[in-house]
Amino acid sequence: MRRIMKKAAPLGFLALAGCAAPGHYPAEGVRPSFSFPVTTNHTPYSQCLSELGTTGGSNLPSFAVGEIADKTGQFRSGVNHNSTWSSQGIAEMLMSALYKTRKARLVERFDLRIPLAQLKMVEQNLTPREAGPQPGMIRGSDFVILGALTELNYNIVSEGARLAISGIGGGGRSVIMNVGLDLRVVNSRTFDVNYVTSLQKQIHGYEVEANVFRFFGTQLVEFDAGRIQNEPLQLGIRSVVEMAAYQIMTDFLGLPSREDCRVMETKFMDGYLNNERNNHDLS
Prior knowledge:
The chain is α/β, with parallel strands linked by helices and 283 residues long.
């Protein structure tokens, strides 16, 4: 029996190799797998930004978006990944958010390589002057938005439970984390800081699992089932960015705001110092 298995094994490998040979596939190639369609990348606050475009007024301010860096200091490394946890495209998220309002002129200051290269080509007569920047033709900015992603707290709350009896069990757990963003609006002419916003959003994830372990004779049979659903971290960051943009357009520029679009005020820290003072007096 062992001799038969030893002879059959190479034949099996050859059969698998034949399936992987180019001639096994159609001449035009294989049909690629395609799952979900491309969609818009909105958050619940995108509709708030879009509705600002229906308000009156045509004297639109010019905004430049500067560096909005990831300053959380959170970095993940390992065998299969070596990257930051947070998106490095927060400035681009803010540009998209301001564009959705249709109430802001966006001028490019984030990547000046193209206009500077164009200007240099004009100066060296490598391209017609009509196609290059002319004196006074480059629009100045009224405000520059700067800031950083400043918080990424992995585990504000985590909880769960699991029970197993005679090899049959199940359980669930959930975790809450948060991200924080600080932005400032700088006057391009005076360099005064005219407005500051500091926002945070909590992000929720949960996992449910069920397990069955059974011995049939000398064989162990195991069955696992479960579900993990996490609110995307980057969606949370984009949501904070869009709410910050909404605040800049309404609180700072004075555009009308909807009640259900305003940032939710929390009172988690209210009275904390008074409680500490009272506890100190009692001791």
